[in-house]
Write a structure and sequence with these properties.
The chain is α+β, with helices and mostly antiparallel strands and 651 residues long. It contains 20 helices and 24 strands. It is globular and about 85 Å long. The termini are far apart.
Length: 651
């Protein structure tokens, strides 16, 4: 290449480079620049806790710069079945709506609030704007009225409701369960769930406990003339006891007649105005004689129960059958109902408000779903009320009370918050007769702070030791619940402590693990000390007084006799540390009165006539337990009469 051509090429290259440089020159924008985006959160995962219904709920919340990415409940002590919808739905709703303005789940309000409060604390840790998150309103979609027809409508999804629906479905009827909370279970799933049933096959294998023989002999002293309709039952019982005493007494005695007489005596009470009440003979007879058969029926539908019998507080004898898992009973029976027909349905978060009546017959209900949707259901055959009692409605309890000195409006309750007497109010509006409303039962051993039934150690009555703040026993711990509650209310501060050693703690009826016990101690639900002296210091009583009481009690166990208070049945002594004290105070537990029914579970009106098309079962009814209920009889009641109601309504 000659020199002239070389410089020509160089010039062309330089020219192209200049042109390219000119093309790459930035063009001034006419659009305003976007401001830098401000992060809504400090990204990361944060942990926080807040109080739920039964203790702390711990959540883990993950944030990006501008979103709540994930909410997870990592630890809780909430009641299985009742709290599950809140534990599942509230975290997802927070993420879906990017909001803390989430409605509580019906029937799990305290659990819902606990989750929301814990997430709020996590938002603060992530430097988020809590106030802004609470301002957001989630969409409220309007729905058209729901109107459907079934053979049988069951109002209430507790034990009586699931029993009634199962029986009706088994008989071929189309069934709907209408439940105002977000889950089945109600008070039944929150209870101790001991089901009293005389069970010779199991009981004949149990060794007789100290004091049981003397207790049986005491029934021989009763006079039939004082027992009215129960005279023949007592006469039969005496013959049974004499036959038992004449033979081998090494194994425990029981009979349906014994259970009947105990139920009758346990419920016969006098109100403050001097009026006596006692359980209806026909209803009690039906309850006791159908209990074991109904128990076996529930097992045949898939319910799983333990073979170990228990005796809940105030039960008076060892005949309580317990499920392996309370929630499993409802899962099994609800599955059974739905599998019988594709027409069967369970409507949750649907509050029944009115019974529909045509020509004197109950033919359906009006209800409202939690989102405001109107619901009208028609019944071809019958409506069954299984809505439970009014233990969470202290105002209604105080209105009717004629037994206790008073029912303060702030008295705690062992009941779920939705036990407000809805079925009683609806039935009263169509002329149903109410019986025994002036009596309610207080649970003497409820948790002092929360009123919960299952907070603490559920020691069997034969092992219970109650001491007051002075460290002294004050009552026969094997007595009926109202007797125990009256005595407790007379103690300093209207409270007391149940005492247990390590062996008793591990055999409690709520089957606690050591980890569960440690957690209860950590949460202050129960107190623990390595020595009796140390436990006395925690209680605040004189150590020697307390130790002397425990030593005396242990000697009574050895002798099978209690000269101080007449406790009739014993089993374990307080010997092996560590030792525990559970603070307890009476709380509203069971409402004795309600809708009057006959043995067919048909509702009776104020003139003594059956109200066509209307049935009732469970705690919504009255007449069975009279003034005081034996521990373990409620579960038998709800399943026996729930089954009867379902069978008859479906015919």
């Amino acid at each position: 290449m000659n020199l002239k051509k070389y410089f020509a090429c160089i010039s062309i290259v330089l020219l192209l480079a200049m042109l390219l440089a000119g093309c790459g020159k930035p063009v001034e924008s006419t659009q305003p620049e976007e401001p830098a985006k401000t992060a809504l959160y400090t990204a990361g995962t944060y942990e926080a806790s807040a109080l739920g219904n039964n203790g702390d709920i711990i959540v883990s919340v993950t944030f990006s710069d501008d979103m709540i990415e994930k909410v997870e409940v990592t630890k809780h002590q909430e009641t299985s079945g009742i709290a599950d919808p809140a534990l599942e739905r509230i975290p997802q709703a927070i993420v879906d709506n990017q909001s803390l303005a989430i409605d509580a789940v019906s029937g799990a309000t305290m659990t819902s609030k606990g989750i929301l409060e814990a997430v709020e604390k996590a938002v603060v840790q992530a430097n988020g704007d809590v106030a802004k998150l609470k301002e957001k309103v989630t969409a409220n979609v309007s729905h058209e009225k729901i109107e459907k027809t079934f053979d049988v409508i069951v109002v209430g999804g507790g034990g009586a409701g699931i029993s009634a629906a199962s029986a009706a479905a088994q008989n071929g009827a189309s069934v709907v369960i209408v439940e105002k909370t977000a889950a089945l279970g109600g008070n039944t799933i929150a209870s101790g769930f001991a089901w009293n049933a005389v069970d010779p096959e199991i009981q004949s294998q149990i060794e007789t406990k100290p004091g049981q023989i003397d207790m049986l002999k005491s029934f021989l002293d009763y006079d039939e003339k004082d027992f009215g309709k129960y005279a023949d039952t007592l006469r039969t019982l005496k013959a049974q006891i004499n036959e038992y005493l004449a033979g081998d007494t090494s194994k425990m005695f029981d009979s349906e007649e014994f259970h009947m007489i105990q139920t009758y005596l346990g419920g016969k009470r006098q109100d403050k105005e001097g009026n006596w009440i006692e359980g209806d003979f026909d209803l009690i007879n039906t309850l006791i004689h159908r209990s074991l058969d109904t128990f076996k029926w529930a097992k045949s539908l898939g319910g799983k129960f333990s073979d170990v019998l228990t005796s809940p507080v105030g039960s008076m004898w060892l005949r309580g059958h317990n499920p392996e898992d309370k929630k499993q009973i409802f899962d099994a029976l609800s599955d059974f109902v739905l599998k019988q027909s594709d027409k069967n349905e369970i409507m949750l978060e649907t509050r029944a408000e009115e019974l529909l009546v045509e020509n004197g017959k109950v033919v359906g209900i009006k209800a409202t779903k939690v989102d405001g949707t109107e619901v009208v259901l028609h019944a071809n055959k019958g409506v069954i009320l299984t809505t439970g009692g009014y233990g969470a409605n202290a105002k209604l309890a105080a209105e009717y009370n004629k037994y206790w000195p008073s029912i303060p409006l702030d008295m705690k309750t062992t009941n779920v918050a939705t036990a407000t007497g809805d079925g009683i109010i609806m039935a009263r509006a169509v002329g149903a007769n109410l019986v025994g409303m002036e009596f309610i039962q207080l649970m003497p051993t409820a948790n002092e702070k929360t009123g919960a039934l299952t907070d603490g150690l559920l020691v069997a009555p034969q092992n219970y030791i109650f001491v007051n703040k002075e460290g002294k026993r004050f009552i026969d711990e094997y007595a009926e619940r109202d007797t125990l509650a009256f005595a407790a209310l007379e103690q300093p501060g209207e409270m007391f402590y149940t005492i247990a050693d390590q062996d008793m703690a591990m055999t409690s009826q709520n089957r606690p693990t050591q980890e569960m016990i440690d957690k209860m101690v950590e949460d202050g639900i129960i107190y623990r000390a390595d020595t009796l002296e140390g436990l006395a210091e925690i209680i605040g009583c004189d150590p020697q007084t307390f130790i002397d009481e425990i030593n005396k009690y242990n000697s009574y166990v050895d002798n099978g006799k209690d000269p101080d208070f007449g406790k009739p049945v014993f089993e374990m002594k307080v010997l092996n540390g560590p030792f525990y004290a559970c603070p307890a105070k009476p709380a509203i537990h069971h409402t004795m009165g309600g809708i009057q029914i006959n043995t067919n579970a048909e509702v009776i009106d104020t003139k003594g006539n059956v109200i066509p098309g209307l049935y009732a079962a469970g705690e919504v009814t009255g007449g069975i337990h009279a003034g005081n209920r034996l521990g373990g009889n409620a579960i038998a009641d709800i399943f026996v009469f729930g089954r009867i109601a379902g069978e008859n309504a479906s015919k």
